[in-house]
Amino acid sequence: MATEVQDYRLEIDKKSFKAESYFPGITYDDYDRAGGISPWKICRMFEAGRMVPFFQGNFLDFNNLRTGNFTIFVLGGDYYFDPCLWEVARKYHYFPYKISVELINLGQTSLTVRQVLTNLLDQKEIATFYGKLVYVDRNTKRSQVLPNWHRLKYQSVESQDRVRLETSMPRIPDNAFSAKTVVGASDTDHNGHTNQGSYIRFCLDAAELARRAQQLHCLINDICLYPVIKMTTAYRGETLAGDELTTSVWEDNLTPRILHFVIMRGRTLVFVSTITFKDRPCSKL
Fold first, then answer.
1. 46 lies in the same domain as 86
2. Contact at 8 Å (CB) between 123 and 98?
3. Which residues, 6+ apart, have CB-to-CB distance to 195 below 8 Å?
């Protein structure tokens, strides 16, 4: 029998606009070739930490907003990884975890949420995601003003924790390394669009190819050996199974352990990311 969102334990605090979802553990497939938890799988964990309260508990009136031609899309956000994340696989081969999601800011067309991934064996917060969700018309693909009743209901939310996404087209330097990727059906979500975690995987795969081509000067070992400190993401367009994408990667001019990524479909910008790594490799096996 397939596991559904209704099968997970869920707790919702309607007064503080916060929900907590509980998960039994991670799987062998969640680890990368160096023995750490894959960053793109952590993206999927945070996605599950939104979908369970949204669909099961109608958290933040999610199901009420998804009516007619309207829906909610993740526009992007910032991921922060605690150093203990890269030790957890060595210390605990298996651990249950919870993901909290809290509304921290409400705009005219968007919501900002903070999510925290907590290891339930030692109660350590091992990763955090600040994400911006936008209310969109499915037909026009443009943002829409949230319904008046929704803005009135959640108007008491006040926080300085906002996600500011870069909106300009990044300039790809001439010396950037590029890698081609064809989106597979397994890279897409239930809407048929390329999944958020898949884009991170495309980026890290391109970074490893750049390293093997000796295009990186700081990260000279397998890219999976370098713990990620922070990832910023911005989703600019939709891609589907069969689309050919080009991922460009280059080192930051001032701090080469910071890598910049741009993913294009032809001449159309679809994804932008910046990933900050530790400057020394760390084997997790």
1. yes
2. no
3. 44, 47, 187, 188, 189
Calculated CA dihedral for residues 44, 264, 187, 88, nearest 10 degrees? -30
Sheet with 70-81, side-by-side order of all strands: 9-13, 18-23, 97-106, 110-119, 124-137, 70-81, 228-235, 268-277, 258-265, 244-251, 177-182
What pTM does this model have? 0.93
Identify the domain containing residue 192 by its residue range. Answer: 166-285
**Same domain for 13 and 58?**
yes
Of the three residues 165, 186, 207, the one that is the final residue of a domain is 165
Sort strands 268-277 and 258-265 into parallel, antiparallel or unpaired: antiparallel
Question: How are the residues of the chain apportioned to helix, strand and coil, as percentages rounded to the nearest 5?
Answer: 25, 35, 40
Whether 3 has a pLDDT exceeding 60, the answer reads no
d(CA 262, CA 207): 12
Do 233 and 200 contact (CB within 8 A), yes or no?
yes
Of the pLDDT bands very low, low, confident and very high (cuts 50, 70, 90), residue 1 is: very low
* Domain identity same for 54 and 182: no
Residue 2 has pLDDT above 70, yes or no: no
Measured CA to CA, the distance from residue 97 to residue 100 in angstroms comes to 10
- Residue 183: CB atoms within 10 A of its CB come to 21
Residue 4 sits in a domain whose CATH number is 3.10.129.10
Q: Please report, as a single letter, which amino acid is at residue 226.
A: Y
Q: Give dist(CA 84, CA 145) in Å, integer.
A: 40
Q: What does the alpha-carbon distance between residue 249 and residue 175 come to, in Å, rounded to a whole number?
A: 9
